[in-house]
Amino acid sequence: MRLEDGHGHLTYSTLVHPGDDWSQMWHSLTTHVPAVRDAVAAAGPFGVSLRLSGASVDTLRDEPDEVERLAGFLAEQRLYLFTVNAFPHGPFKGRRVMEEVYRPDWSTSTRVGYTKDIADLLARIAPADVRPSIQSAPLAFRADVGSAEVVQRLTDNVLDVVAHLADLERRTGRCVTLALEPEPACYLETTEETVRWFEDHVYSRQGLTALAARAGVPVSEATDLVRRHLGVVFDICHQTVGFEDVPESLDLLVRSGVPILKLQEAAALRAPEVDADVVAELERFTDTIYLSQTTELRDGATRRFLTLADAIDAWREDPGGAREWRTHFHVPVFLDDLGAFGTTRFGIEQALGVHARTPLSSHLEIETYTWDVLPPHLKTGDVDSYVVRELQWVRERLAAASPART
């Protein structure tokens, strides 16, 4: 939905619903999204964030009638598509995902072609008055990046897509953007690392020269071109898991000229004190198909674990001392008290406070995709009702943080 006071478009990620192929995504889109729209924006229009897997993109590329059916449905239902989640290329529901969610990564031609196909689709069916965004992986899983040559290949492929986006705008008049999403345990993880990659590999003389050659423009125009088409998704959950100060990280991106193309409202598990009782409760969150990257703060130092189970194993070996854990497990944003522990909802409130005063992005999205693996005690309704509560909560917090009108 379009928010007031220049605060952009707000929606939720359809990654929460089944969508590993186009038939699943079509069913989810036509079943759940209208129900949510009716509850929060009955008169419309209501913005859509569409999860598109590689299989779905293949279908839409090869079957033009399906694209027409999609465009017709959106128009009839007072819906508009303004962002696509192209992070997970493969299956994401009902089977082990873990680190496979980052593959194929940005070193591959598969990731490049998949992203270009989505850009072409958005140029066809997104409204003319929005700049649609493509949410994508943080280059690669960190363990898969073993050399400078790999980093260069990751960068070259991103620049290849940026050149495609520039050419697409020249041909169609539609500006599509690519938003990379930093995440724990990935090559782009912290905000500082992300800014450094942009400065060293994209905004550098070498990066701008490479982009200019690909896009067929003078080097003097490459800086504006890359900032027009390439930026980041700032997932509040991811950055709070790393114990970042959210307002400071947002300010760093702004000062560095890295566009925040999507501000993603998501909350992580937080255990401010870890003891045997808390560990026993947290074990209910270890039986999951997703990675649960966990950061421990102990005696002023942080330690990173790939999964919550790894953190628990380390605690059992050395249970003494005060420590705090934050775990990459998305929980509903309106929840703060989960009994034995809490969430990083405070990070969302901080970010919305900044955004209310000085809008950071035109795309706001709630991404609580873990409905299917939430412990039963956190489910008090169906997925649509939870999504509605999340949208209402974000809208209310944003309104409360906005400067009073005179």
From TrEMBL:
Origin superkingdom: Bacteria
Protein name (record): Metabolite traffic protein EboE
Protein species of origin: Aquipuribacter nitratireducens
